[in-house]
TrEMBL record:
Record's protein name: LLM class flavin-dependent oxidoreductase
Highest taxon of source: Bacteria
CDD domains according to UniProt: Flavin_utilizing_monoxygenases (cd00347)
GO MF: monooxygenase activity; oxidoreductase activity, acting on paired donors, with incorporation or reduction of molecular oxygen
């Protein structure tokens, strides 16, 4: 994406180098997890999360590695499982996966799928993936892919099973599905009052318990856009051009109004009681802990690289997240 201040963009190769460096920094700084998304567009560099994460595995030591998210509706679950099982072996057991239906639909025509099957594809693929996660041999029949007949599913991951989460953006049926399946629920909370997501967490827990899963196994995670600086005012001033740039691009890609976000709109989005994680370390801690009181979630992930943000600003956010935010949150939530 073009930097709205310099007017310059970087190559896909440079973008990959920066992703590698960001992951290495996050690992060395003591953060717990690093994720990369999946897009099939020229303005994004990563279309294959397991390939990128396998490269990251070779330059990191302890940080968990996840997709964020895998567009499960348009990928073969067998191929996906084998790729992430391979990543798990290469990383000594650090692979995870967040699966979602996808915010963009370019992968449907690209891989020969019909958007009318948007939900049905995801339902079938997540159920098959979870069975692959438990069984070395599989016999299976479905609607969208060829049947399996006593098929060997190889390799097996180093972990007993690959930790699997379902990305949920705000749809009650998605929360219920994650609960019934007994997988983690990764809530994407991108703005507004986070309290509006509390009913989804309740639905998730209720559906999971009704399906026979233990409450302690029903893990909630929160993901959100974020930017950190030494002061909240500095963070807002530095991040505004890039966040406005991001939303203009996203709306344009979806055929929506692509005008520039006003400063007043941005101020409203970054208010202390909202879900956009932009501010000083102290402000971010307050927002995370407020959401913890609502959800009791086990994980928080911030997307800190957005809108053409220069890499040195990404580095600063990672450093502040690791040194000023994570230790405080860990201490507060361990009580």
């Amino acid at each position: 994406m073009v930097d709205p201040i310099s007017g310059k963009s970087i190559s896909a190769g440079q973008r990959m180098k920066e992703i590698m460096e960001a992951a290495k920094l996050a690992d060395e700084a003591g953060l717990d997890i690093f994720g990369v998304g999946e897009h099939h567009r020229l303005d994004y560099a990563v279309s294959s999360p397991p390939v990128v994460l396998a490269s990251i595995a070779q330059i990191t030591k302890r940080i968990k590695l996840t997709s964020a998210t895998t567009v499960l509706s348009t990928v073969d679950p067998v191929r996906l499982f084998e790729d992430f099982a391979t990543l798990d072996l290469l990383s000594d057991g650090r692979a995870e996966i967040i699966a979602g239906r996808g915010a963009f639909i370019e992968s449907f025509p690209l891989f020969g799928y019909d958007t009318n099957d948007y939900d049905a594809l995801f339902s079938e693929n997540i159920e098959l993936f979870l069975k692959l996660n438990k069984n070395e041999r599989m016999t299976w029949d479905g609607r969208f892919r060829s049947p399996l007949r006593n098929a060997e599913i190889a390799p097996r991951p180093l972990q007993k099973e690959l930790p699997t989460w379902v990305g949920v953006g705000g749809t009650p049926s998605s929360a219920v599905r994650a609960g019934k399946l007994g997988v983690g629920m990764a809530l994407a909370i991108l703005g507004g009052d986070p309290a509006r997501f509390k009913p989804l967490v309740d639905l998730y827990h209720e559906a999971g318990i009704a399906a026979g899963h233990r409450l302690e196994d029903l893990k909630v995670g929160v993901t959100g856009h974020g930017y950190l600086a030494d002061t909240t005012q500095q963070a807002k001033e530095e991040f505004y051009p890039y966040y406005s740039n991001y939303w203009s691009a996203v709306h344009s890609q979806r055929g929506m109004f692509s005008g520039r976000m006003s400063i007043a709109e941005f101020e409203q989005l970054t208010a202390p009681d909202t879900a956009l994680f932009v501010g000083s370390p102290e402000q971010i801690v307050e927002k995370i802990l407020r959401q913890y009181e609502l959800f009791g979630h086990k994980r928080f992930m911030a997307q800190v690289d957005i809108g053409g943000l220069p890499f040195e600003k990404v580095v600063k956010s990672i450093e502040l997240l690791a040194t000023k935010v994570a230790p405080v949150v860990r201490k507060a939530t361990s009580k």
